[in-house]
């Protein structure tokens, strides 16, 4: 375990800019979002809680060109690989789903794989929980345990640094003068902070009476014909925000576009809540009703993924609760699903 002071971390970020496009979380009002690191360090928040946008936005862009002029060559990328700093545990779990979809199958997505191989992930512990955080119910801790290159645990004067990969160790070796070995007293401060944030998330779970993932087995099958889908879907305005904001949702749409003499194939994020999502040629639609699409969203996360990948496709990040204009709260739906045994 290493220690890096705040000024040295800024020096490290400045050095990393040589090889990477560096993104850091910054705060504006009550919201946190990623911003490219320049030299303005004032508004960076490495700790606190997850940013507004999900990590997937860096790996599968909301809109990107995937082919040009119907050639099979991969369009060249000119930008440097990404170094993303301050990534939280709930977003790292999103990798498990995104990896399963985009790289662990016969069909391998070259854009995703390239991004995953070249990027540097410097994650960070949460130092507080907001009311919508319920990661513990999904078996996660509010601090990263895997899938990072380096992890930062913010403490008063700087950060404890844990190495999570060979790539992370190479960064430590290259910029060794910026780091020190961490003493036991600092490690105790980190452990106490982690314990405090766990308590905050536990309090959220208690206050909202959120079920634990052990109780999820079979809940979708048991409730497949239940009235709750229609009841919950009543207020939905079919905006798709719950999908686009979610770190595990991954569905996309391909379309072609002509611009002057060039033809491009583009990929954009799609949403299973939208009526045309599953519509096929001839107009047939297996999920014509909105409540069927809401049920499908939960079925995919809590029945399909545990069956095919042994994981629930939810990280407890709470973004969909915050984003839904219809106040459809995943915590309430999970409670209804587990109560109905
Ligand atoms: S379903 Fe909601 S709480 Fe779960 S990972 Fe997606 S946005 Fe976060
Ligand atoms: S965010 Fe809410 S209103 Fe929008 S599609 Fe999802 S459930 Fe419906």
Key words describing this protein structure:
3-stranded antiparallel sheet; binds iron/sulfur cluster; about 20% strand; alpha/beta; 12 helices; single chain; 8-stranded mixed sheet; about 350 residues
Overview of this structure, please?
This protein is an alpha/beta fold. It is built from 12 helices and 11 strands. The protein has 2 domains: 2-208, no CATH class; 213-339, no CATH class. 35% of the residues lie in helices and 19% in strands. Strands 3-2-5-6-7-8-1-9 form an 8-stranded mixed β-sheet, with helices on both faces. Strands 4-11-10 form a 3-stranded antiparallel β-sheet, with no helix packed on it. Strand 2 and strand 3 (31-36) form a beta hairpin. The mean pLDDT is 94. The chain binds iron/sulfur cluster (SF4) (2 copies).
Count every beta strand, where a strand is a DSSP E run of 2 or more residues.
Answer: 11
By oligomeric state, this entry counts as single chain
Number of helices: 12
Percentage beta strand? 15-25%
**What is the terminal separation in angstroms?**
46 Å
Main β-sheet: number of strands, strand sense, barrel status? Answer: 8 strands, mixed
Measured on Cα atoms, how large is the radius of gyration? 21 Å
Shape: globular
Let me know the average pLDDT.
94
Estimate the helix proportion, in percent: 25-40%
SSE pattern: EHEEHEEHHEEEHEHHHHEEHHH
Total domain modules: 2
Bound molecules: iron/sulfur cluster
Give me the side-by-side strand order of the main sheet.
3-2-5-6-7-8-1-9
Unreliable spans are none
**Structural class estimated from helices and strands:** alpha/beta
């Amino acid at each position: 375990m290493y220690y890096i002071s705040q000024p040295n971390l800024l020096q490290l970020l400045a050095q990393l800019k040589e090889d990477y496009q560096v993104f850091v979380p910054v705060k504006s009002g009550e919201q946190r979002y990623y911003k490219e690191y320049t030299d303005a360090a004032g508004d960076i928040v490495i700790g606190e809680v997850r940013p507004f946008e999900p990590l997937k936005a860096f790996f599968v862009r909301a809109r990107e060109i995937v082919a040009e002029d119907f050639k099979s060559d991969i369009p060249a990328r000119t930008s440097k690989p990404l170094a993303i700093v301050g990534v939280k545990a709930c977003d790292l779990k999103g990798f498990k789903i995104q990896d399963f979809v985009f790289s662990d199958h016969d069909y391998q997505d070259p854009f995703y794989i390239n991004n995953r191989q070249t990027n540097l992930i410097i994650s960070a512990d949460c130092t507080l929980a907001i009311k919508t955080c319920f990661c513990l119910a999904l078996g996660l801790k509010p601090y990263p345990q895997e899938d990072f290159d380096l992890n930062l645990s913010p403490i008063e004067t700087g950060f404890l640094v844990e190495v999570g990969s060979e790539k992370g160790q190479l960064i430590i070796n290259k910029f060794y003068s910026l780091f020190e070995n961490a003493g036991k007293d600092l490690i105790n401060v980190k452990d106490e902070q982690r314990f405090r944030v766990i308590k905050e998330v536990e309090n959220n779970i208690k206050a909202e009476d959120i079920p634990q993932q052990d109780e999820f087995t079979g809940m979708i099958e048991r409730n497949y014909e239940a009235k709750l889908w229609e009841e919950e879907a009543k207020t939905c305005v079919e905006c798709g925000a719950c999908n686009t904001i979610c770190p595990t949702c991954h569905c996309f749409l391909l379309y072609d576009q002509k611009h002057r003499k060039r033809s491009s194939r583009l990929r954009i994020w799609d949403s299973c809540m939208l009526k045309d999502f599953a519509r096929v040629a001839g107009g047939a639609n297996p999920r014509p009703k909105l409540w069927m699409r809401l049920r499908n969203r939960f079925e995919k996360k809590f029945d399909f993924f545990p069956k095919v990948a042994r994981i629930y496709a939810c990280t407890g990040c709470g973004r969909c609760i915050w984003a839904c204009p219809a106040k459809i709260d995943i915590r309430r739906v999970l409670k209804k699903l587990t109560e109905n045994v």
